[in-house]
Amino acid sequence: MKKSLIGLMAGFLLLTSCSVSKFIPDNKYLLDEVKIESDTKEVDPALFNSYIRQNPNAKWFSQVKVPMHVYGLSGKDSTKWINRFFRKIGQKPEIFNEEIADKTRAEIEKAVRNMGYYSARVTLGEFIRRKKLKLTYDIHAGKPYLIESIQYDIPDDSINNLIKRDSVHTLIHQGMPLDANVLDQERIRLTSILMSNGYYHFNKDFFVYQADTVRNSHMVDLTVHLMPYQLQKEDIPKRHQPLKVHTVNFITDQDVVRLDENGLTDFDSIIYKGYPMYFKDKLYFRPKLLIDFNRIKSNSFYNDQDVQETHTLLNRLKALRYSNITFQEVTVNDSTQLDAYISVAKGKDKSIQFEIEGTNSAGDLGAAAAISLQHRNVFKGSETFTLKLRGAYEAITGSNNQDFVNDNYTEFGVESSLNFPQFMFPFLSKAFKQKVRATSEVDLQYTKQIRPEFTRTLAATAWSYKWSNERRQHKFDLLNVNYVYMPRKSTVFQEYLDDMSARNSLLRASYEDQLIVRMGYTFTYNSAGNMTMRTLKRNSYSIRFNIEESGNILYGFSKAFHATPKDNKGYVMANIPFAQYVKGDFDYTKNFQIDDRNSMVFHVGTGLAYPYGNSKILPFEKRYFSGGANSVRGWSIRSLGPGSYQGTEDGKMDFIKQTGDIKLDINFEYRTHLFWKLNGAAFIDAGNIWTIRNDTEQKNGLFKFNDFYKQIAVSYGLGIRFDLDYLILRFDGGMKSVNPMKHGKDKYPILDPKFSRDFAFHFAVGYPF
Fold first, then answer.
1. Angstrom distance (rounded) from CA 680 to CA 683
2. Could you tell me if residue 670 is inside a domain?
3. What is the pLDDT of residues 590-616, one digit of tens each?
4. What's the domain range around 122?
5. CA of 265: how far to CAs of 260, 337, 603, in Å?
6. Fewer CB near the terminus (10 Å): N or C of the chain?
């Protein structure tokens, strides 16, 4: 079987290789490979990959040019549908273009010279074999020009003092190469300083460099000149003048976001705390909101950073469709000043959404429907209120027990949330709120589940804060309360729980009344900022850290009133036992970008949870599990571990018991673009879960430092991703490689793989990590 498969693949590649040659014209060559090489260590060839205008055909997993070979299966007759099909899903052979190669050579040469290597040369190296050509861009950098001295010619004392005050952050130093890119960045930095200190009309072109080379050397004396202010060449040169902001005005209108020819004559207006506010019909925002989200100050020098920060803050308001900030020069007491106009346009504040889905749970068919209502300006402060109503019904077969109240499953629930665009908490200063830029959210949820075996009510409420910048995200759960109430259990189901309690305490605990009151904090850092995996074309990494604790406040409150717990079973709140634990998680993901179509991603995730005080075990929903689409993909969800746990005495596995207090996931994935909207992946996963305390119901599941590495499961597999722009559909197939739940030869299924025994299929939305 294996030999025939290898032979089939070899025959396919041979056939397609021959078929591609018919698309290569005479005296032309297939561009087979492109490389950039440098004879100088400081000039990294990878810096110039973006300059290459013509690349070879794409390779799957950086190995085989499958798309080109698929194209080669088509004939020259483009009227036949089969030929059009192969050409559409394949990739046309890339024919070497000498003119494009020479343009690329010139651009790379220019880029190297801009780095300070002004005598650099780039030559083309061509290696031809049959109809294939391998192209090399050879960089001969030569000796760089270095900065010997730096002087500033700034005749304006005010500007000179501003530059000196921030000289510690300068980008140009003695001894560095005369890099044109760094010199331009320094001009931008100096311009930013001036524009943040009143110089409204300034731009980087007012700074000019003069470089004088020292005789018979590669050393340069650099001078930074400040040019006088001129809008046109024929204008009389004059000094740069800083401008103050005279007034800050707000314009709120559905359609108008800039001043029209008639100015503001058609607007009504009010003055709130010294700020004029213009509107038509009605002012649909509270004036205080607009002031709180503004950083432009009247009677102060123009500050470009304040303008940019105001733009950023206004973009956070979900009730706004867009915003604009303009300035007009006015004469005040014989001096030129600026009037600022902050214009905002409100978007649609109300929306409604319907959702309908079908369900199939172990052959029991059902349906669910939900309706969501949203108001994005409920209190005229860009507060977002969301209300969602959901109902579900499932016909349960084979349940004819007379003890059951009903024979089907019904669920209905309501979710609501209220999001504030500010940090809503008493006793906090205005300066702190402006610095943190947090949003506050209150959530309420209520769900009732009615099954033949039981009725369960779940209620939750939460108060949380979120704040972020370009790369960092923070979330602080000030209070999160989850309450599970079991008002009814059928006699049969109660007897089943009583019978199982001696063998499975976890199962019993998951069907009891429970209260979880927790606090938590989550920190996420992404070096790529807001870029997504679709647009990411460079190396990056992300870190996620989460910690939460539950029950300490309730524990202290209960102990203050009761020295000892009731019946020595644990403290309760309103006769409801509450959980007490601490839990921490850490995730690290590193992306290595090979080229535009291929990347490697490494991920490690760890977690540790410790129940104490009022809890001997973690609540079931807080315990870790392993296996599934985002873990070790050779196992289905909740089917791996803990440790080398092998199931009950009769050999049956129990997903309730396949949970733990410690988690480890290690993943390596090679991602490649296939064609159209299809991407592929090859992966290796490793990991498992363990318990902290020894539990006879989870035999061999205890974490031991001298043993845990022997219990790490390993799997490998392939995946397909459909990138539909707005979401990614993922299909992964994993095979077990090392199975810690088996012994002897069975522990290493990679040596004797069996599809029926070792394969697990997963469907998910989004990337696994």
1. 10
2. no
3. 999 888 888 999 999 999 999 888 788
4. 2-140
5. 10, 22, 60
6. N
